[in-house]
Amino acid sequence: MENRDGPTLEGISQEWSIQGTLTTECLHIRRYELGDRRAVRRLHDDALNEVGAHLGRGLWDEDLDEIEGFYLKSGGEFLVGVLDGEVVAMGALRRISRETAEIKRMRVKPGLQGRGYGQTLLDALHRCAAELGYSTLRLDTTVQQRAARRLYIKNGYREVRRGNIGPFECVFYERDAVA
Predict the structure, then answer these.
(1) Contact yes or no for 30/87 (Cβ under 8 A)
(2) Is 36 helix (H, G, I), strand (E, B) or coil?
(3) CATH number for position 38
(4) Is 67 inside any structural domain?
(5) Closest CA to 115 of 12, 29, 13, 27
(6) pTM for this one?
(7) Is residue 95 in a domain?
(8) Which of 13, 114, 118, 119 is deepest in the core (most CB within 10 A)?
(9) Using one digit for the tens of pLDDT, what is the confidence trace for 46-85?
């Protein structure tokens, strides 16, 4: 039975032990809260600037100014990963249709990438998608975001096409088995 009111968040608001390079760090994954707005925007800007994929503010990222309506109240989800009180990771699900959702805004703070935080967040989004009743997930990323592309392929996403979004060449992926 599908749950279109949103995931119960059981299993989402929990700590995940991620092996860091020198120590074990706990990443706490939870649902976005209004107080996260500035941290989410900063993480978004910093992560895209790091890979040269930021166009500045515009209509293409207006969803970040209305996360509640765009994601949380529209059959989707928006999660943040918190480490030592700081939002260091984020990712969202956006409803496309009854069966299909799109993974959006996957970001990990530059300098903390490669530690498994992206995988942890993607796993949580997959659980949310399954709980919300989605059977297909889609996403896109720029060709220069090689680490993201490897993450998606490793998790069963297949390339379905390429195209441009603004000045960026992008790869579009899809995954049919959500859970």
Answers:
(1) no
(2) helix
(3) 3.40.630.30
(4) yes
(5) 27
(6) 0.84
(7) yes
(8) 118
(9) 887 776 666 666 556 788 989 999 999 999 999 999 999 9
Q: How far apart are CA 84 and CA 73, in angstroms?
A: 28
Contacts of 9 (CB under 8 A, 6+ apart): 30, 31
pLDDT of residue 160 exceeding 60: yes
Token reading at 77: 């989800």
Phi first, then psi, for residue 22 (nearest 5°) are -120, -25
Per-residue pLDDT at 30 exceeds 60: yes
Domain that holds residue 38: 14-136
Give the CA distances from residue 18 to residues 82, 96, 149, 167, in Å, rounded to whole numbers and listed in that order.
12, 32, 21, 35
Tokens 């943040």 — which residue? 80
Q: Which of helix, strand or coil describes residue 113? A: coil
Q: Is 177 a member of any domain?
A: no
- Asked if 102 and 94 touch (Cβ cutoff 8 Å), the reply is yes
Is 15's pLDDT higher than 80? no
34 occurs within a structural domain: yes
